[in-house]
Amino acid sequence: MRKCLECGHRELLRATKKIDFNGVALVEGVVYTCKACGARYEGFSHVEELSRAVAKHIARGEERLSPAEIRYLRKYLEYSSKDFAEFLGVTLETVYRWESPNSPKPMKLATEKLLRYMTLVDVPAGDYGLDRAGTRKKTSPPPIFTEDDGRWKAA
What domains does the chain contain, in order, with CATH numbers? Predict the structure, then answer.
């Protein structure tokens, strides 16, 4: 950083400090402070890699997810609150309550495990077709599987 964005002063103090990362982690980052006006600028490098590392760490944890962690993982998976609610088959209000810092409602453990799994596999749920799973009444006959060079597939 070459100059203060607030006052244009060119003398900035540079320090490495622990910076809050979305309420779910502390990250060592660079902090620039303007000597003239005191404006503060924070940043870290490789944000995408950092986001992935934080998400994986949260997903592997043994403690129940906090509201901030649920929100972070949902956003990491690129779900809006509305789309997340639709995918899980819950109301939008339920998602809001899971993520509420004031009076949170805990997720059911099975839902929490699904959220953690989705985070760890790095494959969007839509790629599995899970967004459509269970949306139609069963009308088709059982699938027939055939073998081809040692590989089984539905015919």
Answer: 1-45 (2.20.25.10), 47-133 (no CATH)
